[in-house]
Every structure is written in C-alpha cells, then in structure tokens.
Amino acid sequence: MHIAIAGNIGAGKTTLTRLLAKHFDWEPEFEDVLENPYLEDFYDDMARWSFNLQIYFLNSRFRQILEIRESGKDIIQDRTIYEDAYIFAPNLHAMRLMSDRDYNNYKSLFDLMESVTKSPDLLIYLRSSVPNLVKQIQKRGRDYENSISIDYLNKLNERYESWVKDYDKGKLLVIDVDHIDFVDNPEHLGNIIEKIDAEINGLF
C-alpha cells in the first residue's frame, strides 16, 4: 500500500509522515531536502536554478515511486511527484523564473515518467493558510527558507487548491491543519488516524 502526504512548504508533511509511519508501522519515504545540492542556490537565485532544482526533485521522486512499487511494503511518502509537476514547476514558469524551453522539457519528462508509474492508494492533503505556513517555516528555522516570500506561498497555495479540487487519481483525504496540533495533542492525531483508517478500510 502506498500512502502519500501532500501540502505546501511548512504544512507539516514530514512530521505527520513520521507520526503515521510509527503508528501504522509503515515505512517512511522522505523528501530529499538535506541532500539536495540545489536548494540553497535556488532560494538565492530562483531564475538561475529553478530547472536544476525541479529536475533533481523529479528524478528523486520517480526513483522513490519505482522503489515503493518494487518493495511490496506499506509505505508512506512525504510529498508526491504530482506536486512538482502541477504546482512548483508551473508556478516557477508563470512567475517567469523558468523559461518556456526548460518548462516544456520538464513537462515532457514528467509525462513520460507518469505513463509508467501508479498513483498513491491514498493521498492526504494538508490544507494550511499562509499565516500558518509562515509560522511553521519560522519555527523550524532553516536559513535558506528565510527568503521565501508571502506572495510565493500564496501562489503555491492557490495552485494546491486548484490541483486538489480536480484530483482524480485515487482516494483523497483533506485535513485542515490551521487549528490542530497533531504533534502535541494526541486527540488531534487520533482524529487524523481515525479518518485514515476509514479511508484505508475502503481500499479493500
């Protein structure tokens, strides 16, 4: 079984991935942030490094998907390949931070990858307001994230909402995270687990 968690920067994907992996005894697959050689450069100069960054993420997540399917294990994944293709890359292109040539090349590669992969059995989308995202980003204190603008987060949020509204690749669970604390409040985490249990039981 393949569960995936989607959401904007700072929505709580990695933390929830860890908590759910522990509870359900699933194997977690995390986004390659610390090892990513382009991330800091990207936030310093988005136009110069946008294509390199997106190709790195696309490659990393495509490899993850192939490994998930080959493993035969129950796996929960932090962020999906779809978010790169439907949210981050087109947003960079729309902001003129990725050229038409690079975007078309990227899109062609994604379409090829998507044609040979399977979507998650359940997608969990963490919906968050921009003020909440900013609070969480500041709390975790990654230096390279200090330059992320409110406008950039707003644009990403708009694309997330549009993508989720039309998502038809499998089961979808939307969780509003603005007023819950699944880290320090066991009841809040319990509510999420109950909702996931209900969705999973419907998969079989």
Please tell me about this protein's structure.
The structure is a single chain. The chain is of the alpha/beta class and 204 residues long. The protein has a single domain, classed as P-loop containing nucleotide triphosphate hydrolases (Rossmann fold). 57% of the residues lie in helices and 12% in strands. The protein has eight helices and five strands. The chain has helices spanning 13-24, 39-44, 46-71, 81-94, 100-114, 130-140, 150-165, 186-201; strands at residues 2-7, 27-29, 75-78, 122-127, 171-176. A five-stranded parallel sheet has the order 2-3-1-4-5, with helices on both faces. It is globular and about 45 Å long. The model has no long low-confidence stretch (mean pLDDT 90).
CATH topology: Rossmann fold
Helix coverage percent of residues?
55-70%
Number of helices: 8
What is the terminal separation in angstroms? 11 Å
Features:
204 residues; alpha/beta; Rossmann fold; 8 helices; 5 strands
Architecture blueprint of SSEs:
Layout: E1 2-7, H1 13-24, E2 27-29, H2 39-44, H3 46-71, E3 75-78, H4 81-94, H5 100-114, E4 122-127, H6 130-140, H7 150-165, E5 171-176, H8 186-201
Parallel strand pairs: 1-3, 1-4, 2-3, 4-5
